[in-house]
Amino acid sequence: MNREKVISEFISAFQSRNIDRFLSHMTNDFTWVDGDGAVVADSLKTFGLLIEGLWAAEPDLKNTVGQSVEIGDFLAHTESFWDYTDGHTEDYLWVYEFEGIKIVKMIGYLVKH
User: Fold this and answer.
1) Residues 11-31: what's their mean pLDDT?
2) In 3D, which of 37, 53, 54 has the Cα closest to residue 107?
C-alpha cells in the first residue's frame, strides 16, 4: 500500500467514525503537533481519546481533502472541516511523517482566515 492510499483510508476511517481503523494507520509512538510546535497528543492513546471527544462534541462534522504531495518520508495535503455546531469552518495544511507505511507524526497548520 502506498502512502497516499494510507492517508485516503485514514480520512475514510475519520469520516465513518471508525476509531480502530483510524488509529491502525499510526505507529504506537505517534505524535500530533500543531503549527506552532505545541504537542497536541504525545501518544496513540491520547490521540484516540481526543478524536473520540471531537466526534462526540461535533456529531455533524464533515471534511474533505484536497491535493497531496509526497516527498521522502513526508506527505502533505490540505483539508477542510465544516458543520461544526457553531457554524464555523476550518482549513488545514497537514504534514504527515511516515515510518514505512505508518504515520509517526502529524503536524497541522490551521489556515488563518
Assistant:
1) 96
2) 37
pLDDT tens track for 41-90 = 999 999 999 999 999 999 999 999 888 999 999 999 999 999 999 999 99
Give how far Cα 96 sits from Cα of 55, 76, 77, 86, Å: 21, 6, 9, 28
Class of domain 3-110: alpha beta
CA torsion, ordered 38, 65, 59, 45, to nearest 10 deg: -40
3-state secondary structure of 41: strand
The conformation of residue 55, written as its DSSP 8-state character, comes to H
Contact in structure between 93 and 109 (CB atoms under 8 Å): yes
Q: How far is CA 20 from the centre of its chain?
A: 14
